[in-house]
């Protein structure tokens, strides 16, 4: 359908009083926005849209996607109740005060920093992103979900409230003070040792890993899985002796 025809349809709908013009149409045509426009009750999908900027004060109660759009930046204080997906977009920086109730997807972008105070209620996906340095995950980052990153040096005293997936990654080591609320997956990774005092709330998966010993003070409150790992040469008693004064709830081979 031609753009001109689509515009006539929207104008007709507005005149009939059935609904307001879509937000993306107003932004595309530089039309004034109302406070109601800035509070999107559902989803906002701007993928492949010919829109270059977003308004300040935008709040999306559902999901928001920007893949393959021409938008280069996000407004400060942006709030998204569902998932914010900016993968395969031109966005290179996340704004201050960003709050995401669902997942944050920044895979295949040039984003290099997660800003202080970032709040994410779900999953952070940063596969093939430009986040590499130890200082680029500040302590202020909050996540209650999974963090899946394939090239990253993790910051010290990092706490992940749910799962941490590092299998098939190039990460060389884990930081001191790491706490994982649920499961930690390290199979097929380049990691060869674990830091002292590592705390895993549920299961630690070391099957098919390169880890040859366990550190003192290791706490695993679920199961330690070591199938097809160098650790299988040790008995359960030897493994538990290694981690003292730590604790392993159960060992699965």
* Biggest pleated-sheet summary: 14 strands, parallel
By DSSP, the count of extended strands is: 20
Mean pLDDT: 82
- Taking pLDDT < 50 over at least 5 consecutive residues as the criterion, the unreliable ranges are 12-19
Question: Roughly what fraction of the amino acids lie in strands?
Answer: 15-25%
Helix content: 10-25%
Which geometry do the CA atoms define? elongated
Our Rg estimate from Cα atoms comes to 23 Å
The structure class reads alpha/beta
Compute the number of helices. Answer: 4
Oligomer: single chain
Q: Give the topology string: H per helix, E per strand.
A: HHHEEEEEEEEEEEEEEEEEEEHE
For the record, give the distance between the C-alpha atoms at the N and C termini, rounded to a whole number.
60 Å
């Amino acid at each position: 359908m031609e753009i001109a025809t689509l515009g006539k349809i929207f104008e007709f709908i507005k005149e009939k009083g059935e609904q307001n013009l879509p937000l993306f149409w107003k932004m595309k045509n530089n039309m004034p926005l109302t406070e109601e426009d800035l509070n999107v009750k559902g989803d906002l999908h701007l993928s492949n849209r010919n829109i270059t900027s977003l308004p300040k004060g935008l709040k999306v109660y559902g999901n928001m996607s920007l893949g393959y759009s021409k938008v280069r930046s996000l407004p400060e204080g942006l709030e998204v109740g569902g998932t914010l997906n900016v993968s395969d977009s031109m966005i290179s920086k996340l704004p201050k005060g960003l709050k995401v109730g669902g997942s944050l997807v920044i895979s295949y972008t040039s984003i290099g920093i997660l800003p202080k105070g970032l709040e994410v209620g779900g999953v952070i996906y940063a596969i093939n992103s430009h986040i590499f340095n130890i200082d680029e995950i500040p302590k202020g980052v909050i996540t209650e979900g999974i963090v899946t990153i394939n090239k990253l040096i993790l910051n010290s005293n990092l706490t992940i409230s749910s799962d941490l997936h590092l299998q098939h990654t190039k990460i060389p080591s884990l930081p001191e003070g790491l706490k994982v609320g649920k499961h930690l997956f390290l199979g097929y990774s380049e990691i060869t040792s674990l830091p002292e005092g590592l705390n895993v709330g549920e299961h630690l998966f070391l099957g098919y890993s390169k880890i040859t010993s366990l550190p003192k003070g290791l706490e695993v409150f679920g199961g330690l899985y070591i199938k097809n790992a160098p650790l299988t040469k040790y008995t359960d008693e030897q493994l538990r002796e290694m981690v003292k004064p730590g604790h392993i709830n159960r060992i699965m081979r």
